[in-house]
Amino acid sequence: MKETYEIGDNEVRVVGGDDDKGRKPRLRRIIIAIAACVALAAIAVILAVVLIQDKDPETHGIGTTDVQGTANVATAADSIWFCNTDNSRASEIALSDTLIDSINLQILTPYNVSPELYVGQIDTADKSILFASQAADLARDRGKIVGAFVCAGEPLSWGLSKKGYCAIFGDSITVGMAENSPLFEQATDVGGYFFRQYPAVSNGKMVENKPQNSSFRRALCTLNGKICVIFTPDRVLMNDFSTALVKLGVKDGIFLVGSTAHGWYRSPDNDNVVQLGFPRAPRMKNVNYLIFRRQ
Amino acid sequence: MSEYLIISTSVDLMRTASDSIVFVSSDGNYSSFMFTSGDSRIVTLQLGQVEQLIAKQLTNTRSNFIRLGKSLIINRNYINYINVPKQQLVLSDEHSSTHSLTASREMLRNLKNIIEKELEQQ
Predict the structure, then answer these.
(1) Does the global pTM surpass 0.80?
(2) Would you call B70 and A9 a contact, using CB atoms and an 8 Å cutoff?
(3) Which of A12, A139, A158 is opposite residue B68, by nearest beta carbon?
């Protein structure tokens, strides 16, 4: 399988047709480009591993585990997994807030919870759920889940639409940015969860995104060795939000469905439901949530 | 008589009649086959590699398959409806299996042109 058939974004061709003129020179360029990318990626992975080991030892300290990959060692082994286990705390969502560049950031940090994805209408009266927020986007026309999505080991959607991803295996969760991730296949193997979203921060660097509108933003982030959800009570630009996350110290982060998307958390003070968006869930078949369950 | 596409990896082997494939979609390094039965199967090959295998193995029926951009290979026998403005492509065996896909307008326009041109040549 030495050759890869090259094709443009909007190109259409009959398989096995005669339209292969000029393919080889372009193929050679692509092979060189791919080789260069692989070399750069290898260097980046080595640097990342060195930086993580040398400069950020606490990231591994609190409920984190390195997972050895099976299909793509470079990507999976580089994933850092979070559990937010803290024996001194109850199973709860802690709320804090801060101001970065005039952007109000509300930080929800779950402790001792079991993360999962849930497809379908969610019951806010279910007291086992401490946090819920719409996870993957739905296509506006037919309501299909956008991008690869695995729920309890069952793949429900395929395709790369956004480079950010979140994977959940057991009580461990990771977020990152990659075009291809073996975690999709691993999630199907181990009964895990996987979804795609816009990346916000990758390895401590802000990731630019095309949407330019102001809106309420939500992101699933890794901050100070913990997984957390950060949202804005005010409308902000996507890229301004990502920049603020970087300044806050977020290492990796992906957006969750923002704006007025349905979502809520249980207050640690009185267990009451605090709404994040519209209080009513959208009546769509594939509406899906990232939820944190009480352990 | 049906031709069979065989995809073999180090751990498994998939053998499927070419006319049971409705479409193949890409997920990065993986490709997902959708069959007329409604079943789907993921293989650890890129879509370009699947296209190569179709071109190599299905000597009589490979021209039934059309590559649409980077993300799809469809079986033209199941093209049921194309709506360019709505970016809609419906693949159906007109019995039990119907799949509605989204593609770019330009891609659907090109697909429509290919089918229309072939009609003129008949």
Answers:
(1) no
(2) yes
(3) A12
> What superfamily would CATH give domain B4-121?
LytTr DNA-binding domain (2.40.50.1020)
Average pLDDT over residues A230-239: 91
Check A12 against B71: CB less than 8 A apart.
no
With an 8 Å Cβ cutoff, are A12 and B66 in contact?
Answer: yes
Q: Which of A20-34, A100-114, A135-149 has the highest mean pLDDT?
A: A100-114
Query: Please, which residues have CB within 8 angstroms of residue A111's CB and are 6 or more apart in sequence?
Result: A84, A85, A86, A89, A90, A91, A92, A93, A94
Identify which of B58, B62, B110 has the shortest CB distance to residue A12: B110
Beta pairing, strands B4-8 & B13-17: antiparallel
Which pair of tokens denotes residue A133?
A: 């927020």
What three-state secondary structure class fits A219? Answer: strand
Closest approach of A109 to chain B, Cα-based (Å): 32
**What percent of chain A has pLDDT above 70?**
82
Q: Which residues partner with A144 through β-bridges?
A: none
Dihedral sign, Cα of residue A224, residue A227, residue A232, residue A236: positive
Range of weakest confidence among A62-66, A135-139, A215-219, B26-30: A62-66
On whether ipTM exceeds 0.90, the answer is no
**Among B113, B88, B110, B114, which residue's Cα sits nearest to residue B101?**
B88
Annotated domain spans of chain A = 23-55, 61-294
Question: Does B80 touch chain A if contact means CB atoms closer than 8 Å?
Answer: no
